[in-house]
Amino acid sequence: MSSDEPVPYGIGSGTWPGLSRLAADAAQVARAARGIIGTGNDTDQDAAVQRESLQDELGDLRAAIDYVIGKNALDWGAVNK
Hints:
The chain is 63% helix and 0% strand. By secondary structure, it is an all-alpha fold. Helix 1 runs antiparallel to helix 2 (47-71).
């Protein structure tokens, strides 16, 4: 049976909303970075694909960071320090 209530840590949750999305997006950034690091340089034929992937994942992570900061009343100044 499915519930309309968001799970804790999920988008819209009452418990640390967005935290699970933030963790998932951070893992995707790490995965993309490992792909680049694993080639040993940036001249591999897949460099353009790797760059695009990293940019996409960083964009997702940035949005997740903004969401978590805003929805959890975190201090932007402390985060930007």
